[in-house]
Input
Amino acid sequence: MEAIASGPTVPDSTTFSDARRVLEKYCLWQNAPISVRKLLSAGEKGIVAETPKSDDPAFRRVHSFVLGNCRSAAAAACRHLRTSGLNTLLLTTTLEGEARYVGEMFGALANSIGSIGEPIPKPAAIVAAGETTVTVTGRGLGGRNQELVLGAAMKLNKIEGIVVASFSTDGIDGPTEAAGAIADTKTYSRAAELGLEPQRFLDQNDSYHFFTKLEDLIITGPTGTNVNDISVIIVL
Output
């Protein structure tokens, strides 16, 4: 609970020493701003108070209820897709991994459904929920959902009726105004017509500008809620 939206009404079990150990583990302590090091050092010495712990009186009358999570969102997506006559599969609600490689897996999964009808027959919809990661090495702009979809687009075969989409439920993917992106089997050829090289955009972590040029961003605006990301594969 303490990790959900920073858990403002839940005890924080971590300490200043924990924060320092994380910085030291990744060799960031010496390069951290002096203000950060001073604060953490002061906290370790007891000069600055720790965040409230489980024995703090403030929590005696606090009761927490989870009203929604990524499983409920993914299940709702599956129910909606079934109303359109699609065979649905909730693949996972704990999706994680490097976004581009998860995207490649989604592309391969879509190709398998399109060509041999496995793991579910057409018309099909696969839903996954969770949160992937982007290891930033380039100087572009994007987010994990946009990078996931770009990775998928580069793997899709030229089979009609395949679409892959991924978006953040809070409507904000990375440092962009987009919630995510959508791609199909024509994305690669459309990019070529515009002189866009998908691999170059992927290498620069620049999925945002790639999908901007194709007008394939998903833009919802902030939704006011956040239950991780939803990814969808549809094969008709």
User: Anything to note?
Assistant: Residues 4-59 form one domain. The mean pLDDT is 95. The first helix runs from residue 16 to 25. Strands lie at 87-95, 124-130, 162-168, 180-184, 217-218, 229-235.
